[in-house]
Specification:
Elements (H helix, E strand, L loop, with lengths): L12 E6 L6 E7 L8 H10 L9 E3 L7 H9 L3 E3 L7 H8 L1 H23 L11 H23 L8
Parallel strand pairs: 3-4
Antiparallel strand pairs: 1-2
Helix pairs in contact: 3-4
Length: 164
């Protein structure tokens, strides 16, 4: 991204797919796009490559930045119900988000994905990438998410495992 003083700022846009029950990161994404409008298909591809087929992933809950007709269609084609807030999309999406069930599902985003990013920033202290080049930064983002998962798995392990 060009800066007003004539410099250049290396900027990346990180994504994470998080399981609602465990809060484990199940897939990561990274782009140099300034918004998330085209990031659903790459995440669906990653989930598919990792064996998360339709039926395992039932619903994709994302914020407004991911809301587009193309992203909704991509989810539906993958057999996944998309749930993003209304931007300039179909009336079906707007209606779903107004229902009691739709609102309850969408609330999961705030308690699933948002805490993961918040904890990665404040507890793990990760606020910027150290490397340059999109492939290196993708690897760095994967390592950060792996560190989160290790921390989270320690919390999720059965309490009896501590007392043999």
């Amino acid at each position: 991204m060009a800066l007003s003083g004539g410099g250049f700022e290396q900027a990346y846009n990180a994504q994470a797919a998080v399981d609602a029950d465990t809060m484990l990161v199940v897939a990561t994404g990274l782009s140099q796009a300034t918004n998330d409008k085209e990031q659903i298909q790459p995440m669906l591809d990653t989930l598919d490559q990792q064996g998360f087929s339709a039926g395992i992933v039932k619903t994709l809950i994302a914020d407004t930045g991911y809301c587009s007709a193309a992203n909704i269609s991509a989810c539906q084609a993958a057999g996944i119900a998309p749930l993003t807030p209304e931007a300039s999309v179909t009336e079906t999406m707007a209606h779903t988000l107004k229902t009691k069930a739709g609102r309850a599902l969408y609330k999961l985003r705030k308690q699933t994905v948002e805490p993961v990013f918040g904890i990665i920033k404040s507890v793990l202290g990760f606020r910027q990438f150290s490397l340059r080049g999109i492939n290196k930064v993708r690897g760095e983002w994967s390592l950060v998410c792996m560190a989160w998962n290790l921390k989270r798995m320690a919390v999720l392990r059965p309490k009896t495992a501590l007392n043999p």
